[in-house]
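Sequence only, no structure available. Ideas?
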Amino acid sequence: MQLLAETPPRTRAGARRAAWLWRWHRRAGVIASLLLLMLAVTGLALNHSEGLRLDKRAVGWDWPYALYGTSAAGSWKGFGAGAAWVLQAGEGRLFLDTREIGRCEGPITGAMVLREMLLVACERELLLLTPAGERIDALDATAGLPVPVAGLALRGDEALLLAAGQWQRFDADAMSLAPAPDADLQPLAPATPPPELLEALGRASGWLNWERFLLDLHSGRLFGRAGVLLVDVGGVLSLLLALSGVLMWASRQRRAQKPSSR
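Reply:
I predicted one. Tokens follow.
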């Protein structure tokens, strides 16, 4: 009676490795599939952004705006400054009426006309602008601005700001501050822009168009650091899938070429 030879240990170990590799290949594929689908769809759309006019089309749904901390209708916080309005919405972006004029560090806390210029205060930055919204100068914490800045007030022709819990006189010529212990004022309060301005801003403001939304979704930035990390994980899983697929193919080729024993 001829006894069947036992399977060599090396062959058994190879089979176990192949089974383990196949199992984790499938798991990684399931996890990565949704991420890869999202990246593929957004990548294809962005590749044809010009033809689809994604940079010209504002996002019309409400939920994407909520991810940026605002709304489509515009939870605009603004201050009247002479005949114009200075408003803020979405990641520190500043608007002079309907025109975007730049960024400001932190939520806006005040704006006023000062000697034919615009003075704009945010929690961590003070901006001096031309009437057209062009930046003249700025102060932040690195330049000696006490933070947080809670508001602005006008006393005669003198601008004061409430910074770090104390009133400070602002010198526009020297871009400097001096304590004003005698000040007993109420900061300028934000106001609601007129309906026609809100309508002009709203969904047609253009600060959130489809191109930017898809770019932030494609990169993961839409969900902050966690989103970027998730996209990175998807990239690593894709590399592992490619590597494990090649290894499994090579292993199968070796088995197919190995002569069978009788």
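The CA atoms of residues 54 and 211 lie 5 Å apart.
Hope that gets you unstuck.
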